[in-house]
Fold this protein.
Amino acid sequence: MDDPAVRTVGLRKAYGRTTVLDGVDLEVAAGTVFALLGPNGAGKTTVVRILATLLPPSGGTAEVLGRDVVADPGAVRAGISLTGQFAAVDELLTAEENLLMMGRLWHLGRAERRRRADELLALLDLTGDARRRVKAFSGGMRRKVDLAMSLVGRPRVLFLDEPTTGLDPRSRQAVWDVVRSLGVTVFLTTQYLEEADRLADRIAVLDAGRVVAAGTAAELKRRVGTEQVELVLDEPVDRALAVLGGAVLRSDAARRTVRVATDGSAGDLRRVLAGLAAGGVGVATVALHRPTLDDVFLGLTGGTREPAGAAR
Amino acid sequence: MTALGRAVSDSLTMAHRSVRHSLRNLESLLMSVILPVVLLLMFVHVFGGAIDPAGGYVDYVVPGIILLCTGYGAASTAVNVNLDLTEGVMDRFRSMPILSSAVLTGHVAASVARNALATTLVVGVAHLAGFRPRAGVADWLAAAGLLLLYVLALSWVAVCAGLLARTVEGANAVTFVVLFLPYLSSAFVPTETLRPVLRAIAEAQPITPVTETLRGLLLGTPIGSYGPQAVAWCLGLLLGAYALASLLFRRRTAG
């Protein structure tokens, strides 16, 4: 049996009386992309820092590639790479020099360093800017250099802490494309639901230091329910509520909208509309609404916080 | 590769990085080279006439200027160390299977390189300004050795300051201390000319014995007990600062 690439059991971290992580259990299968999804302050970065041996846990255990991060940090470091929230690049060096430096630190031979640097510059579409100092780079290019630096040592587990926060859509797409093409275990944190949905094989939702849900994107969506029809009415919602009764999931008097569960079939939709027509309720527009991870997120984390992804 | 081989390799890589930083940080490099030269010319040509109308002040002041400039060059180490800590790059190094304290060794190596350059320049300009040392090869080597020890000690003190400071501005403050200290020593005036309190301070700090020893080696003035004192000061500071830096580094990077 293959060991999971990452496993935490009852992971805790507290600073004085402030508990940041309150018993986090995670398991990431080798070769998969895993997303730890949560709002700011949920403890995502703390989890990554513990797994990357930068921070000792206060309790519980954390293993990466079968090695305990506290007992055997050297073995863990040999198999991982970390791209933190703030690009850890050397601004005074060029993109190429940054990669060559990483090659030296991984004790690659001269020719191998050269080859690896060229390969990664090409992979991240940086070849044309290889000899420019990183200081002059945009945020997106910096992040690409950062990612390239993380790949020099051919890590078996790549930690990406909010890899696309603050990036423009094109840079974000470029980072996604690279992450998807890697084929190594990726442990990423994100506050963007879309990012988790696009990249991750499995997702865990972290809120206030606890995992509140875990599964594939599809499984999480299923937890929020089936597809829904949103009806925008010509009139106040009262009569529609009376006609539809228990089928109503949600209504909004101000916007004059009503949501009803549906299986998405034409027949089901016709039944709903016919019922309303028979009751004399005027319907202006109809929209089919599939549950998104936003719904999962809001449903699971109490919904009081507006996740950053919702604003986009 | 053995553990020692890896540690040496990592330190060399970091030294390479820090030297590159020094070369690219042009303003700071120019400052650490131009400042001592300007100070040298100022002391010799502006104050020198008043202090020694016969024109011999250049010989007296060069060792002091060298120390002033090495101090200044070493102090920028504090800023460089602090920058690494406050930016994300240290996290990367620490999550790699390398000796992460090699970052510090790298900064100290770059400091030595910067100072070697600045000192050579100062000695060259001093020569043009009339500096006529009476030192043999052995004296020069001994002087270089003492300077190296002094730079290493100051650089590690600066590393400590860089590790202690919360901000880059704070780390920069060490520069002023190091720039100011030579004025309270025998670097520019003989300590006998100072008032008793200042004289006591001057005699109790490392720059006076180091200056006097350099002066003795280069110009043949009596060294006396200043020689062993200078070496003791430098070694003591070096070992103390190195130990403290290791401790501070572990604590600062413990999350």
Remarks:
- Chain B has a mean pLDDT of 88.
- Chain B touches chain A at residues 1, 6, 9-10, 13, 16-17, 20-21, 24-25, 87-98, 254-255 (CB under 8 Å).
